[in-house]
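COMPLEX REQUEST
Ligand: 6-O-phosphono-beta-D-glucopyranose
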Amino acid sequence: MEIALASQQSQNPLRVGMRSARNVAPCVMVIFGATGDLTHRKLLPALYNLALEHPLPPQFTVVGVARRPFSNEEFRQQALDSINQFSRRRPVNERVWDTFSKGLYYHQSQFDDKSGYEGLAKLLEQLDQERGTGGNHIFYLATPPSFYGTIGDLLNSAGLASQDGNGGQGWSRIIVEKPFGHDLESAMALNKELNKAFKEDQIYRIDHYLGKETVQNIMVLRFGNGIFEPIWDRRYVDNVQITVAENIGVDSRGDYYEEAGAMRDMVQNHMMQLLTLVAMEPPTNFGANAVRDEKVKVLRAIPPFAEAEIAADTVRGQYGPGMVGGEVVRGYRQEPGVNPNSRTETFVALKLAIENWRWAGVPFYLRTGKRLTKRITEVAIQFKRPPYLLFQGTGTDQMQPNVLSLRIQPNEGISLLFEAKVPGQEMQLRSVNMDFLYGSSFGVEPPEAYERLLLDCMLGDSTLFTRIDETEYSWQLIDAIEHAWSRSLAAALPQYEPGTWGPKEADALIERDGRTWRRL
Ligand code: BG6
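STATUS: Structure written out below.
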């Protein structure tokens, strides 16, 4: 996408960017937390798929760093197991695996042991020479955020953090996972620590929602077509609904989730990303800063909640025990690692305003939760009704508003709901759908979010990564709500039945405005 920046003279920079060859320079990806779940389920399978489908250079190298005493061979075996279990493309292609696995190395170290980093620097120097990776290093921190500062510092003291890599050659980048802070203050502190070693343009804050094909398609739908943008504003749009529903519970992540809750786990990051992509102004080009500047403007246009509004415009809930699909499921408070009196929310519904010329008066309704009816992520743009109901009195006054729905997952696609005449002698109307389905239109499986994001980082393209000011503005909004919620401990935290759409208070939030949630 950065390539598009250079081709601004072109008639259509977006298209040029999309078509451009994306050749990766030989590099080493160092994964801290190499024996953990994220590496096992996501990172190693994603890297293998990139080797399979994208011309990753044969020199591409991975160094896994963790505390466990593994040999290179054991790490390679672990990688093979990960790929066999979680790769999008299976079975393993022997030829690709052969080349890929030769580039997998393991380095044992505590994350806070200085000598471990000296050893890592030596190993990287050796690999750069033997494998021709040119001093280009990516450090992926698949560790708890409490290690970010220490790892950054020690990489720096080992001479591994400088922008131009070793001896003035190559580059050095760092990828950090969420949660990026717990609130605004901790996010700023975390950033300050990272900044001691890495500059902002070396830091890649990953939000895997931005790597989803359908999320990227929001930009293509809006800015690659002429017909949507003219109606994409307060004159035509009645409201926008963003739903990120999951049918699973918190499973084994109780400890983490107790500290996060749905607001910090989903709203602060993934849902805010969806919101900003839907609401932003067209960027002047498709470069990382131009796109992120526009996203930040949206966040700045959301007025912080005043305490009085929080009771009216936010709803939280927690799933209780119940039955789903004939099976008994635990309530949140009975999940392992969860306090039996927990007041952590597993459901959030919000009504937001974006106070700018485009969106003044258009409510944005957001809802997310665990143990809901189904897994579905959707952005729905609901349009205003026709100005005059011509068909009133013909039994057709129940006309549905037009809805453009962007289905992020599953059954990825885009639908436009509109009214049509039912064939026959009478004037009867019914809502019908015009559908685009990824699966049938392209006939190929979209890559996993991590594949796209890892590749972009190798290419030095940070468009799909969260810039620090995005994180901070988003925390500012979330903090106001969290503070109000925590001040009124007695405030309602309704329990909801698993397998439903959350507490009835969420319905009341939108019905008060004479609207209803989409039935999904
Ligand atoms: C993660 C959250 O970031 O996103 C999880 O921590 C959530 O709680 C997951 O389940 C959802 O991701 P996806 O890609 O399955 O929608």
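REMARKS: Residues 254-279 form the longest helix (26 residues). Residues 246, 265 surround 6-O-phosphono-beta-D-glucopyranose (CB under 6 Å).
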